Amino acid sequence: MLRAGALAALAAPLLASCFGETEPPAPDPLAELAAQARSDAATATAIASAHADLAAAATLIAQARQEHAVALQQEVDRERPPTSSTAPSPTGATPPSAPPSAKEAEQALTQALTSAEQQAAGLVPTVPAYRAGLLGSVAAGCASLREVLS
Amino acid sequence: MPSSTSPTSGAAEPGSLSADAVDGLQQALAAEHAAVWSYGLAAAFLGSASQAAAAEGSSVHQGRAEANERWIKGAGATPRAAEPAYVPPEQVTNATTAAAMLATVESDVCVAWRGVLERTDDAALRGIALAALTDAAVRATRWRVTAGQTPATPAFPGKP
């Protein structure tokens, strides 16, 4: 009893020092996924207007990746409400240009979807359960969108 | 820094799952059973070009159902049995309606496995659930394309 009490007394200040002086929190990993989804949506939109043969698939990809971006950003903001300094700046800088050939454009979309699927899937084992469902659907959605291209 | 703070008692046995996770697995098992049955029905209507995909889908779902039963038994619960028959959402009369039924069934499988993802912290089970969700989403997409349905995939497969 005495020993346990002494340990508890020691533990309290230790914990306080661990959590008291916090460094700036690590960036939310979902923020990067949201940014990538926004970028993929913009690329797919450019490809849809540049390559008629890919228009249907690229439009579907653009819409789905935009939905991914919104849902992921909502989750980031829910967890840590944005301040003016952390809110994602609108990426209105330079809209992406589509690769000149349809074959390259298709490869670019396939690569983007493969990478997005892997990124989301890689986080699934360790995130809180409610995030695992969202990320699982994003990963499965990217795999399905790739199927639409093939 | 926080070393040796965990007590020796109360550690979960490997393979033990929460009641919530087991419930999610039971629902996934029910969806897999329904998928196996539906592939059996669809095979009678699908064209020759779809037979290989149907046979593969059937065998994948049979395998997942069996693996799922092992997980449920491992957690000390009794796996639910398959129903003798299922009611397709729409009447199946030809290749198109058969493919549409399979798209619906795969979509149901996606929902069930996403449910497992949301109910367990077990990394191994999450990996299995993610693989099952992704596989079913891709199959659902193929059957929608076969049935001529658009869009070929929702943005969030498995989202109820």
Keywords:
heterodimer; A: 150 residues; mainly alpha; Ferritin; 5 helices; B: 160 residues; 4 helices; disordered N terminus
Biggest beta sheet summary of chain B? none
* Termini Cα gap of chain A: 67 Å
Question: So what's the overall shape of chain B?
Answer: globular
Low-pLDDT segments of chain B: 1-14
Helix content of chain B: 55-70%
Low-confidence stretches of chain A: 4-18
CATH architecture of chain B: Up-down Bundle
Please summarize the sheet with the most strands of chain A. none
Order of helices and strands of chain B: HHHH
Structural class of chain A: mainly alpha
Integer count of domains of chain B:
1
CATH class of chain B: Mainly Alpha
Biased composition (Low complexity) (chain A): 82-95
Region (Disordered) (chain A): 68-114
Protein name (chain B): DUF4439 domain-containing protein
InterPro entries (chain B): DUF4439, Ferritin-like, Ferritin-like_SF
Tell me about this structure.
Chain A is mainly alpha-helical and 150 residues long. Chain A has a single domain (28-81, 94-149), classed as Up-down Bundle (Ferritin). Chain A is built from 5 helices and no strands. Chain A has helices spanning 2-20, 29-50, 55-79, 102-123, 129-149. In chain A, helix 2 (29-50) runs antiparallel to helix 3 (55-79). Chain A is globular and about 50 Å long. By secondary structure, chain B is an all-alpha fold. Chain B has 4 helices and no strands. Chain B has helices at residues 19-43, 48-74, 95-117, 123-147. In chain B, helix 1 packs antiparallel against helix 2 (48-74), helix 1 runs antiparallel to helix 3 and helix 3 packs antiparallel against helix 4 (123-147). The longest helix of chain B has 27 residues, at 48-74. Chain B is globular. Chain B starts with 18 loop residues before the first helix and ends in a 13-residue tail after the last helix. The chains are: A mainly alpha (150), B mainly alpha (160). The A-B interface holds A 11, 14-15, 18, 60, 63-64, 67-68, 71, 117, 121, 124-126, 129-130, 132-134, 136-141, 143-145, 147-148 and B 1-2, 5, 110, 113-115, 117-121, 123, 126-127, 129-130, 133-134, 136-138, 140-142, 145, 151-159.
